[in-house]
Design goal:
279 residues, 2 domains, 4-stranded mixed β-sheet, 12 helices
């Protein structure tokens, strides 16, 4: 990265996170020998990391990526095999309920804007994980696919919700039913990712974008993320009404007064973000 880390890196067993720019944290899945495949221990570490980062008023935007050559290969296949053989016949609980579902759910529900920096393979639950983020930047090495059907499974981790909304129902059906893995250029063409960059530029690009978001007032950023997600399940009138009340809730804030004053005075706004502001 072009900017130095200004706070100490935090290492957990299956991931680590660091702070390369003001307001930005980068969380890296760190099981590179297993394609960053998801196991329950990784889910526990991710939940702990999110608890820490979401409660930190100095963190306003999160970047997610993977160590090594994969972003996330979805469920760890060997762990899934053991579960299906030894555990599932007793509990009848699907494996994704233990690993993939809580991972995607936590990312999708986060109050922080999240940028996925897709450094390599993102398949099945790994692609669902990326789609649960708000913005996706891909390396030219990235390969993306909803490969559940190749394992004899339907998409069961949010992919059937996210993918049609990002690329349209016809393209989504093709990807789901064939299980094809596409390259980054095709992902950009269909709107699955926002941009594609060379591998050595990926984290710099993601951090720079996150830093631009982090410079905006966090109340407005948080409300904007909530509004974008809420409209996915609303009709037009409900969306307009929700937007009206979201604006009403913030229209007397210090941030708006500062933003207006800065625009009139033709200067950069100076937003205050004291630690006590975030619940």
């Amino acid at each position: 990265m072009t900017e130095p880390t200004f706070r100490k890196r935090v290492d957990l067993d299956n991931l680590y996170y660091e702070f390369p720019a003001e307001g930005v944290a980068v969380l890296t899945l760190n099981r590179p020998d297993f394609g960053n495949g998801v196991v329950p221990e990784l889910v526990s570490d991710l939940q702990a990391a999110f608890d820490d980062l979401e409660g930190d008023a100095d963190v306003r935007v999160l970047v997610l990526t993977g160590a090594g050559r994969q972003f996330c290969a979805g469920a760890d296949i060997k762990a899934m095999q053991v579960y299906l053989r030894d555990v599932q016949p007793v509990t009848h609980e699907p494996y994704n309920a233990r690993v993939l579902y809580p991972l995607t759910q936590r990312v999708a529900a986060s109050r922080l804007p999240i940028v996925a920096a897709i450094n390599g393979g993102a398949t099945a639950g790994g692609l669902d994980f990326a789609m649960a983020c708000d913005i996706r930047i891909a390396s030219t090495r990235a390969r993306l696919g909803e490969t559940y059907v190749k394992l004899g499974l339907p998409p069961g981790n949010g992919g059937a919700y996210f993918l049609p909304r990002l690329v349209g129902s016809g393209v989504a059906a093709e990807l789901f039913l064939t299980g094809d893995v596409i390259d980054a250029a095709r992902a950009l063409e269909i709107g699955l990712v926002n941009r594609v960059v060379e591998p050595e530029q990926l984290l710099d690009e993601a951090v720079a974008l996150a830093a631009r978001i982090a410079r905006n007032p966090w109340r407005a950023v948080e409300a904007t993320k909530q509004a974008l997600r809420a409209t996915w399940g609303q009709d037009l009138q409900t969306a307009i009404t929700s937007g009206y009340w979201a604006v009403a809730a913030l229209q007397h804030s210090d941030d708006i007064r500062e933003g207006i004053a800065a625009a009139i005075e033709k200067r950069a706004p100076q937003y205050n973000r004291p630690a006590t502001e975030r619940p």
